[in-house]
Amino acid sequence: MHTYRCYLLNWSDNIVSVDSVRAEEDDAAMVMAINLLREQHPTSAAMEVWEQRRRLGRIENDAPDARTLRPLLGAKHP
Predict the structure, then answer these.
(1) 49: number of CA atoms within 13 Å, CB side?
(2) What is the pLDDT of residues 58-68, one digit of tens each?
(3) 45 with 9: CB under 8 angstroms?
(4) Could you give the CA distance from residue 10 to residue 17 in angstroms, rounded to a whole number?
(5) Is-contact 35 19, C-beta < 8 A?
(6) Are residues 49 and 71 in contact, defined by beta-carbon separation less than 8 angstroms?
(7) Would residue 59 be called left, alpha or beta, if left means φ above 0 and alpha means ψ between -120 and 50 degrees?
């Protein structure tokens, strides 16, 4: 079981809080993070999910489902 950090971001891309989820694999952690963002933080802009120093992805709050996840391996920051 891995622990993933979920950084909640405001509309200025600043971290406003940190949650954590525990999951067996990355995909499950991302689904849990999507649910966390949509159900508990509906007015926040986005959430980034990390496992230790590894960034899994970013979830935009206006996204209808997991297909809009932006994989970040090798991606450059805007």
Answers:
(1) 28
(2) 999 874 444 44
(3) yes
(4) 9
(5) no
(6) no
(7) beta
